Amino acid sequence: MCVTSRVPVDFVCRRCGACCRIPNGIVRVDEREIARIAAFLGIDEEAFLETETELAPDRKSLMLRSRPDGACVYLTEENLCKINPVKPEKCRTFPFEWTNPDSSAYCPGL
Ligand code: SF4
Ligand code: SF4
Questions:
Q1: Whose CA is closest to 79, among 104, 108, 48?
Q2: Does any domain span residue 23?
Protein backbone atom coordinates (compact mmCIF):
# COMPACT_ATOMS: atom_id res chain seq x y z
CA MET A 1 0.00 0.00 0.00
CA CYS A 2 1.45 3.35 -1.00
CA VAL A 3 0.78 6.38 1.17
CA THR A 4 1.45 10.06 0.78
CA SER A 5 5.08 10.64 1.50
CA ARG A 6 6.27 12.32 4.68
CA VAL A 7 9.83 12.74 3.61
CA PRO A 8 11.95 14.84 6.00
CA VAL A 9 12.69 18.31 4.65
CA ASP A 10 16.40 17.56 5.04
CA PHE A 11 16.17 14.19 3.28
CA VAL A 12 19.41 13.14 1.65
CA CYS A 13 19.61 9.99 -0.42
CA ARG A 14 22.55 7.87 0.79
CA ARG A 15 22.70 6.06 -2.54
CA CYS A 16 22.64 2.76 -0.72
CA GLY A 17 20.41 1.06 -3.28
CA ALA A 18 18.24 -0.52 -0.60
CA CYS A 19 15.05 0.68 -2.30
CA CYS A 20 16.14 -1.19 -5.44
CA ARG A 21 16.63 -4.53 -3.74
CA ILE A 22 13.42 -5.05 -1.82
CA PRO A 23 12.33 -8.70 -1.98
CA ASN A 24 9.09 -8.91 -3.93
CA GLY A 25 9.34 -5.23 -4.81
CA ILE A 26 7.17 -4.20 -7.74
CA VAL A 27 8.24 -1.62 -10.31
CA ARG A 28 5.43 -1.34 -12.82
CA VAL A 29 6.12 -0.07 -16.31
CA ASP A 30 3.58 1.32 -18.75
CA GLU A 31 3.79 1.44 -22.55
CA ARG A 32 5.51 4.82 -22.61
CA GLU A 33 8.14 3.71 -20.11
CA ILE A 34 8.71 0.45 -21.94
CA ALA A 35 9.36 2.29 -25.21
CA ARG A 36 11.67 4.78 -23.50
CA ILE A 37 13.73 2.20 -21.61
CA ALA A 38 14.05 -0.08 -24.64
CA ALA A 39 15.25 2.85 -26.76
CA PHE A 40 17.72 3.88 -24.06
CA LEU A 41 19.11 0.35 -23.91
CA GLY A 42 19.17 0.17 -27.69
CA ILE A 43 17.11 -2.99 -27.84
CA ASP A 44 13.94 -3.92 -29.63
CA GLU A 45 10.76 -3.40 -27.59
CA GLU A 46 9.68 -7.01 -28.09
CA ALA A 47 13.04 -8.25 -26.84
CA PHE A 48 12.82 -5.90 -23.88
CA LEU A 49 9.36 -7.18 -22.98
CA GLU A 50 10.53 -10.76 -23.26
CA THR A 51 13.73 -10.53 -21.25
CA GLU A 52 13.35 -7.56 -18.90
CA THR A 53 9.72 -7.61 -17.79
CA GLU A 54 7.21 -9.98 -16.29
CA LEU A 55 3.55 -9.88 -15.34
CA ALA A 56 2.85 -8.20 -12.00
CA PRO A 57 1.31 -10.44 -9.31
CA ASP A 58 -2.09 -8.77 -9.73
CA ARG A 59 -1.83 -9.37 -13.51
CA LYS A 60 -2.82 -5.76 -14.18
CA SER A 61 0.46 -4.59 -15.66
CA LEU A 62 4.00 -5.53 -16.49
CA MET A 63 6.84 -4.89 -14.08
CA LEU A 64 10.60 -4.96 -14.25
CA ARG A 65 12.21 -8.29 -13.51
CA SER A 66 14.20 -8.85 -10.35
CA ARG A 67 17.25 -10.96 -9.76
CA PRO A 68 16.97 -14.07 -7.56
CA ASP A 69 18.11 -12.01 -4.57
CA GLY A 70 15.29 -9.51 -5.11
CA ALA A 71 17.42 -6.73 -6.58
CA CYS A 72 16.20 -4.95 -9.67
CA VAL A 73 17.95 -6.14 -12.80
CA TYR A 74 19.18 -2.60 -13.40
CA LEU A 75 20.91 -2.07 -10.07
CA THR A 76 24.67 -1.95 -10.59
CA GLU A 77 27.36 -3.18 -8.21
CA GLU A 78 27.95 0.47 -7.31
CA ASN A 79 24.28 0.81 -6.25
CA LEU A 80 23.53 2.95 -9.26
CA CYS A 81 20.62 2.64 -11.66
CA LYS A 82 21.72 1.50 -15.09
CA ILE A 83 18.70 3.21 -16.66
CA ASN A 84 18.69 6.29 -14.45
CA PRO A 85 17.82 8.86 -17.18
CA VAL A 86 14.72 6.87 -18.11
CA LYS A 87 13.86 5.01 -14.93
CA PRO A 88 10.15 4.40 -14.29
CA GLU A 89 7.99 6.97 -12.54
CA LYS A 90 7.74 4.78 -9.46
CA CYS A 91 11.50 5.02 -9.03
CA ARG A 92 11.71 8.73 -9.86
CA THR A 93 9.10 9.71 -7.31
CA PHE A 94 10.29 7.71 -4.26
CA PRO A 95 10.38 8.90 -1.51
CA PHE A 96 9.28 12.41 -2.42
CA GLU A 97 5.80 11.56 -3.68
CA TRP A 98 5.09 8.21 -2.08
CA THR A 99 6.34 5.79 0.55
CA ASN A 100 5.14 2.51 1.98
CA PRO A 101 4.42 1.99 5.67
CA ASP A 102 7.70 0.09 6.01
CA SER A 103 9.86 2.41 3.90
CA SER A 104 11.72 3.88 6.86
CA ALA A 105 12.77 0.35 7.82
CA TYR A 106 15.02 0.07 4.79
CA CYS A 107 15.64 3.64 3.64
CA PRO A 108 18.28 5.23 5.91
CA GLY A 109 17.29 8.70 4.75
CA LEU A 110 13.77 8.46 6.18
S1 SF4 B 1 14.89 0.87 -12.36
FE2 SF4 B 1 16.67 1.77 -11.36
S3 SF4 B 1 15.81 3.03 -9.70
FE4 SF4 B 1 14.21 1.61 -10.38
S5 SF4 B 1 14.37 -0.19 -9.01
FE6 SF4 B 1 15.61 -0.60 -10.85
S7 SF4 B 1 17.70 0.05 -10.32
FE8 SF4 B 1 16.28 1.00 -8.85
S1 SF4 C 1 16.89 3.42 0.25
FE2 SF4 C 1 16.70 5.65 0.56
S3 SF4 C 1 18.79 6.35 0.90
FE4 SF4 C 1 18.94 4.32 -0.05
S5 SF4 C 1 19.06 4.71 -2.27
FE6 SF4 C 1 16.90 4.43 -1.77
S7 SF4 C 1 16.09 6.51 -1.42
FE8 SF4 C 1 18.34 6.63 -1.29
A1: 108
A2: no
